[in-house]
Write a structure and sequence with these properties.
By secondary structure, the protein is mainly alpha-helical. It has helices at 9-12, 25-41, 43-68, 73-127, 132-140, 149-190, 192-202, 206-248, 253-263, 269-286, 294-315, 323-343, 345-357, 363-370, 379-384. The protein has a domain at 39-107 and 174-202. Helix content is 78%, strand content 0%. It starts with 8 loop residues before the first helix and ends in a 6-residue tail after the last helix.
């Protein structure tokens, strides 16, 4: 019996070459989903660490400046942290009294507003013509007896107790998180030079060392420049809003100026929240008259000038990001970590762009992060464009 020879690699050609496994996109997608839920579950641990790292990038420059003039890093870090905390406490103490006054007036005003809306909706329903069958059913229906006042009082008391318990729990959690952030910030600032030097020393290749050190310094410059510039812009917007609210006659304009300046760090979400709060403040001051729309209208007009003219001119192209990427970053981090995550969404996006710039595999992601602020070429010209020969 004659056996046929087995096919050799020369005979089979490309069929004998093992095929490369396809990219496991499904597994990568599951990994991304798992990481997102891990970030959400680990919020009490990761949020203070992330905020401390972002603040370290901003406040490391003053510590390095003090170190150059002979101040030890431990002492310089303490000076910077104490100065920042003193400024925050001074601003908070100045705004605590007017904020408490607005908070005390809020429940009664909300009750009056809900009653006004209820009366308006009832009047509107009475003005709408209804079929005869519906009118007969309404007249034939027996009146529903009102619940006893004791039951309503008990329900309000239980809900108030639950709300108080939630507020106390959130306050304690915020205090612990803030304390952990401040302590970690001090240690990071005091050991920033040591951490950077040990990180660079751990890299084997010389070229990679230069990339790592350059990326860290670039992140410190860009994040610090962005937050510093944005702080100045927000301070100007808050001042202009406070002057406008003073002219309108809204009480405590300094409080609302500070609220606007802080919330403007959150792109898109912050201005919308500030406009809603100013609408509520206008309702609490002027009732349901047309004057209640004056405070949010004044703020939105000033914000339109800031967003369309001042910020593009001051920030420039170096720190400009694609609006879609900024909006998605605010949505994702706001969903994960709430208002604190939305506040640090843009600095984290800047850090991601720096990483993408220094990685060959991630440069295509950098294109979508930076965007193209010039007129793009037509699709027909892109189809006719030849691929450069290698």
């Amino acid at each position: 019996m004659i056996r046929e020879p087995l096919p050799t690699s020369a005979a089979t050609g490309a069929d004998a070459t093992p095929k490369a496994p396809t990219a496991p996109w499904a597994l990568r997608g599951l990994l991304v989903v798992a990481v997102l839920f891990l970030l959400s579950a680990a919020k009490p641990l990761l949020l203070p660490v992330t905020i401390a790292v972002v603040l370290t990038f901003v406040l490391s420059a003053p510590v390095r400046l003090l170190r150059r003039i002979g101040v030890p890093e431990a002492l310089g870090a303490g000076v910077v942290v104490v100065s920042a905390l003193s400024a925050l406490l001074l601003i908070g103490s100045a705004l605590a009294t007017p904020a408490a006054q607005w908070w005390d007036r809020a429940p009664a005003t909300m009750r009056d507003l809900l009653e006004s809306l209820d009366r308006a909706s009832t009047t509107l329903m009475e003005m709408v013509p209804q079929p005869p069958a519906v009118r007969r059913s309404k007249t034939a229906t027996a009146p529903v007896p009102a619940p006893p006042r004791a039951a309503i009082a008990d329900k309000l008391a239980s809900e108030g107790l639950t709300f108080t318990r939630v507020v106390i729990g959130e306050t304690l959690a915020f205090a612990l998180s803030a304390a952990a952030t401040v302590i970690l910030l001090y240690f990071l600032l005091a050991s920033e030079h040591w951490l950077v030097s040990r990180t660079v020393e751990a890299v084997q290749r010389r070229r990679t060392r230069a990339l790592v050190l350059g990326g860290i310094r670039q992140a410190q410059r860009e994040i610090g420049l962005f937050l510093g510039t944005q702080s100045i812009i927000n301070l100007g917007l808050g001042t202009a809003t406070g002057l406008a609210l003073t002219a309108i006659g809204l009480p405590n304009p300094v409080l609302w100026a500070a609220v606007v300046a802080v919330l403007n760090f959150m792109p898109y979400l912050g201005p919308a929240l500030a406009a809603a709060m100013l609408l509520l403040a206008g309702t609490m001051t002027y009732g349901t008259e047309l004057e209640m729309f004056a405070p949010p209208a004044a703020f939105l007009a000033l914000h339109a000038i800031e967003a369309n003219f001042v910020s593009p001119m001051v920030i420039g192209r170096r720190l400009r990001l694609a609006p879609v990427s900024v909006f998605l970053s605010v949505m994702v981090w706001g969903w994960l970590w709430g208002i604190a995550g939305a506040l640090i969404a843009v600095p984290l996006l800047l850090a991601l762009r720096i990483v993408c710039k220094r990685s060959r595999r991630l440069k295509i992601v950098c294109i979508y992060l930076e965007g193209n602020h010039e007129a793009p070429p037509s699709l027909r010209s892109l189809l006719r464009k030849r691929r450069p020969s290698t």
